[in-house]
Amino acid sequence: MNETAASPIEAVGEQTLDIADAAAKQGIDGLRSLLEFQLLHTSNVTITVGSLLAAVLVMVGTLLVSALVQRALGRYGKRTPSVNQASLYTLNRVVHYLLLAAGLLLALEVLGMSVTKFAVLAGGLGVGLGFGLQAIFNNFVSGLILLFDKSLKVGDFVELEAGTRGMVKAINIRATLITTNDNIDILVPNSEFVSGRVVNWTHRSANRRIRVPFGVAYGTDKELVKKAALEAAARVPFTLAMEGPEGPQVWLDNFGDSAVEFILAVWLTEEAARRNAAIRAAYLWELDTSLKEHGIEIP
């Protein structure tokens, strides 16, 4: 009785399994057909949906590894204040570029493109796109030069040939990010730093000297002028020192048509070295106040 009753159930179960097995095989065959679908076919290269997905996964994995390495280096820099931050930044970028290059080569292999085939393809693209690719390659190489040459590093205050001034925030593959004192971000192609004239105000030392010209009426006591100018320098919080070789100096510069012209030369603190216009205005303000307090006429 039990065997006779179980037979229809077993038959239904076997039929269900057969249907599921057929559906699974059909799904697998459909997926295989999709993955083997050719997106590009030439005499040298055949790119399928599957190889393209695999290449994308390789690049995503490469980016994740690069992000983890950069995060680890960033944490190391924060835990070790004594480490040279500029060198750490250079190491960070170089490792990132090397990982990207390795990931790209592996992705090309997955796509079935050997380095030789890729070189031929890149050469053809280079001829087709002309100077556009040359400019990109030039900026990339210039970026590597900047990272290894150490003539420019993150945190430097620079002035470009075009007159742009600002702090270097990042040196990227194509361009360097500069932030001006007005908090404006400017992307400058890396090649401009290599081929153009660049003034690095903080390359060797963050401290620098500013020269503030001013004039007084003829007949004014020079020693009184010097005293008033030094008092003005002492009032400005950006003056580096009041004594020694880095103390402020007052120079007699010229005999003008209507005034005796002086220069107040002052060494600035690191903070002030990056704010040229605002600092000059601060010294002029205090010079005007101090000269008037001493009864010195300003023509």
TrEMBL record:
Task: Name the major location.
Answer: membrane
Cellular location of this protein?
Answer: Cell membrane
GO annotation, cellular component aspect? plasma membrane
* Domain Mechanosensitive ion channel MscS: from-to ranges: 136-203
What is the membrane topology listed in the Swiss-Prot or TrEMBL record?
Multi-pass membrane protein
- Designated name of the protein: Mechanosensitive ion channel
- Mechanosensitive ion channel MscS C-terminal domain residues are 210-298
Species of the source: Marilutibacter maris
Question: Coiled-coil ranges per the record?
Answer: none
| Name of one Pfam family that matches | MS_channel_1st
Q: Recall the GO molecular function terms of this protein's record.
A: mechanosensitive monoatomic ion channel activity
Q: Which family does it belong to?
A: Belongs to the MscS (TC 1.A.23) family.
Source taxonomy? Bacteria, Pseudomonadati, Pseudomonadota, Gammaproteobacteria, Lysobacterales
Which UniProt key words apply to this protein? Cell membrane, Membrane, Transmembrane, Transmembrane helix
Q: Which InterPro entries match?
A: LSM_dom_sf, MS_channel_1st, MS_channel_C, MscS-like_channel, MscS_beta-dom_sf, MscS_channel_2nd, MscS_channel_C_sf, MscS_channel_TM-2
Domain Mechanosensitive ion channel transmembrane helices 2/3 positions: 96-134
Keyword set includes Plastid: no
Gene3D superfamilies the record matches? 1.10.287.1260, 2.30.30.60, 3.30.70.100
